[in-house]
Amino acid sequence: MKAKELQTEYEACCDKIVLVVNETTDKVTSGGIVLPASVQPRQRRGRVLSFGPDVKTKLTIGDQVLFNIHAGAPTADGDREILVIAEKELFDRIVK
User: Fold this and answer.
1) CA-to-CA distance for 25 and 52, rounded, in angstroms?
2) 61-91 per-residue burial string, b: 16 or more CB within 10 A, e: under 16
3) Where are the beta strands (DSSP E) in 10-87?
4) Which of 71, 72, 73, 78 could be joined to 83 by an S-S link, Cβ 3.0–4.6 Å?
């Protein structure tokens, strides 16, 4: 599957998944304490742009997924962070 929404066209190969990474921002607790992104849980969220033919996980373009904060190979496309991860680095597909 190909991703065409960014400046560059991405076509994942093998068991790789291309994601647009959602920004992690500082969160404020109900008591007003600011929790910086660096102390938040060690998982990240992203949106699937493309995936290779060997991916066995049921994915569609646009799915939201969770993955390890240290997963993959990051790159940039304009002002957006793009990440290429292996299927085994995927934690979960978010189902609403």
Assistant:
1) 30
2) eebebebeeebbeeeeeeeeebbbbbbebbe
3) 10-11, 16-21, 27-28, 34-35, 43-51, 64-68, 73-77, 80-86
4) 72
Instruction: Please name the amino acid found at residue 70.
Output: H
Residues 21-44: what's their mean pLDDT?
Answer: 74
Residue type, 82: I
The CB-side HSE value for 31 (13 A sphere, CA atoms) comes to 2
Joined together, the tokens standing for residue 4 give 């065409």
Domains and CATH numbers, the chain: 2-93 (2.30.33.40)
